[in-house]
Amino acid sequence: GLFQHAVFTVPDFAVGYTTDDNARALIFTVLLEELGEESAQVRALATTYAAFLQFAFDPARGCWRNFLSFDRRWLEGAGSEDSHGRALLALGTCVGRSRRRSFQDWAGQLFHRALPGVTEFTSPRALALTLLGIHEYLLSLSGDRLAAQTRDALTARLRQLFQQCATE
């Protein structure tokens, strides 16, 4: 996957990898593909970032781990709500925008396995990232009832949080 940090152009092995950054990188490769940049290098990078998200997902918990050390040890049992939301945004982008049918199918399956975990989110950023991911996902799979119901529930929760916190 993509290293979390670097010193100029030199990867910093001390900090390892994150689901957040690999999700961002996957989104970037799908957007490049959408713009017509479908080189072998972009396809290989997209596959690397997708493989990281696949590896980071814990099916028993239904969530992503976020921090992976350079020696391939997970540094926590479950990642943040924000990293989960960003991973869903990346998968939704694959489903909604990728021209690669295999990516759409893979991303759709993983998206569907991870979506139930968002119902307990409290982070506004995680809610927003998930909503963006659902929007992307529904570009191709508009009839998915679970995604639409989850979108409606998260939208209501985000509005409620805004109303609780908003001031003049």
Question: What does this 3D model show about the protein?
Answer:
The structure is a single chain. The protein is 61% helix and 7% strand. The chain has six helices and six strands, in the order βββααβββαααα. β1 (6-7) and β2 form a beta hairpin. It starts with 5 loop residues before the first strand and ends with a helix. It is globular, with a radius of gyration of 16 Å. Strands 1-2 form a two-stranded antiparallel ribbon. It is mostly helical and 168 residues long. α3 (81-97) runs antiparallel to α4 (101-114) and α3 (81-97) packs parallel to α5 (124-140).
Query: Helical stretch count?
Result: 6
Helix content: 55-70%
In this structure, how is the largest beta sheet organized? 2 strands, antiparallel
Strand portion: 5-15%
Q: Could you tell me how far the N terminus lies from the C terminus, measured between alpha carbons in angstroms? A: 44 Å
Structural class: mainly alpha
Q: Regions with pLDDT < 50 over 5+ consecutive residues?
A: none
Query: Within the largest sheet, what's the order of strands?
Result: 1-2
Rounded radius of gyration (Å): 16 Å
Written as H for each helix and E for each strand, in order along the chain, the element string is EEEHHEEEHHHH
